[in-house]
Amino acid sequence: MKKLIIVLVIIAVAGLGIYTLKSWKESAIYSNPAFTSGNGRLEATEVSIAAKQAGKIENIFAREGDFVKKGQHLAQMQTNVLNAELAQAKAMILVKEGELAAAKAEKMHKQSNFDNARKRYERAKSLYTSKAVSLQTYENDESLYKGASAELASANAKIKQAEAAIVAAKADADRIQADIDDCKLVAPLEGRIQYRVAEPGEILSSGGRVLNLVDLTDVYMTFFVPETVAGKIRLGADVRILLDALPDTPIPAKISYVAENAQFTPKTVETRVERQKLMFRVKARIAPELLKKYITLVKTGLPGVAWVRLDPEEEWPAFLRLKKNIQVKKKDGNKAVSKAK
C-alpha cells in the first residue's frame, strides 16, 4: 500500500512538473511582443457535387471518406429521356440535310433556266436594237429573264434557310449531348468525400446536391485577434499551428487573410484573456505541398492554436520549431532548401 502511495505521489509530482514547465513556456511566449496567438479549428474549402438538371439519381460510386482524383466519376444521373431527345435531334439533322440537298438540286434547275433566259434576253435585246425582232418579243424575253432571276434568288434563299436549319438542329443536338454529359458527375478537384447528401433513386431538382467534397490541398485555420494586434500582422507572416490532437508537432502555415473591419468576437471562439468586444478575423493557410505529403492524415474540424510571428527576425521557441519530417521545401535557385527558423 505504501509503495502504491509513493508511486502515485511520484506521478503527481511529475505531472505537476510537466504542467509547470509547459505553463512557463507558454507564459514566456505570451509575454513576447514578437508573437501572438489565437484559437481556431482546421477548415478546408468545400465543393458541392450537384446535378445540373432535375432528374433521378441512377448510381453513386463514392462513399463518405473516400479520396477521389480530379475527373473521377462520382455519380450518374438518369439519361433515358435525354437519350431519346438526342436521337430525335439527330434524326432532325438528317431531315434538314435532305431538305438542303433538295434545295441545291432545285437551284441547279433554276440556274439552268436562268442561264437560258439570260442568253435569250441578251439575244433579243441585241436583235431589237437592230429592229430584227418586235417589241413584243423583246418584252416577253425580258419578262422570262426577270422571272428566272427571281426564281434563282428564291432557290438560293432556300439553300441558306436549309443550312441555317441544319446549324440549329446540330446546336440542339449538342445542347442535349452537353446535358447528357452533365449527368455524369465528376470530381472537379482532388479531395475527400465528406458526406453523401442524397442516395440512388432519389429525384433531385435542378442544382440538387449529391455529394460534399473537401479540398484537402486548401486547408486553413481561422482565428481571431484583438484590434491591438491585428495591425501588426502582415500577409505572408509565418505561423505555427498546434493542434490539440498533436500538441508536440508544430504545423507550418502562412497568413493568407486579415479582415479589414473588426467585428464582435463569435461566441464559439475562446480567448486567452477576458473576451474582447472588437476582434479581427485572420486566416492561416497550410502549404499545399505539405498537405499533399500527408493527405491521408488531414482532417478538418480539429481544434488548436495558431501562433503568429510578428517579427520575422525573432527565433521560434523550441516547442514551436518544425520537425524535420514536416518541413516545407522551397526552391532557391537550383537548390532546394528547408527553413525551420
How are the SSEs placed, and which strands pair?
Elements: H1 2-30, E1 35-50, E2 55-60, E3 67-68, E4 73-77, H2 80-129, H3 135-182, E5 184-186, E6 191-196, E7 203-204, E8 209-226, H4 227-230, E9 238-243, E10 246-258, E11 263-264, E12 278-286, H5 288-293, E13 303-309, E14 329-332, E15 335-338
Antiparallel strand pairs: 1-8, 1-13, 2-4, 2-7, 3-6, 4-5, 6-8, 8-12, 9-10, 9-13, 10-12, 11-12, 14-15
What is the strand arrangement across the widest sheet? 1-8-12-10-9-13
Strand content: 25-35%
How many structural domains? 3
Most strands sheet: 6 strands, antiparallel, barrel
Mean pLDDT: 85
Q: Looking at the structure, what is the overall shape?
A: elongated
Radius of gyration: 39 Å
Write the CATH architecture name of the largest domain. Answer: Beta Barrel
Task: Please tell me about this protein's structure.
With 341 residues, the protein is an alpha+beta fold. It folds into 3 domains: 34-44 and 218-329, Efflux pump adaptor protein, beta barrel domain (Elongation Factor Tu (Ef-tu), domain 3); 49-78 and 184-210, RNA polymerase II/Efflux pump adaptor protein, barrel-sandwich hybrid domain (OB fold (Dihydrolipoamide Acetyltransferase, E2P), Beta Barrel), CATH 2.40.50; 80-182. It is 40% helix and 30% strand. The chain is built from 5 helices and 15 strands. The chain has helices at residues 2-30, 80-129, 135-182, 227-230, 288-293; strands spanning 35-50, 55-60, 67-68, 73-77, 184-186, 191-196, 203-204, 209-226, 238-243, 246-258, 263-264, 278-286, 303-309, 329-332, 335-338. The strands form 3 sheets. It has a 6-stranded antiparallel β-barrel with strand order 1-8-12-10-9-13. Residues 331-341 have low confidence and may be disordered.
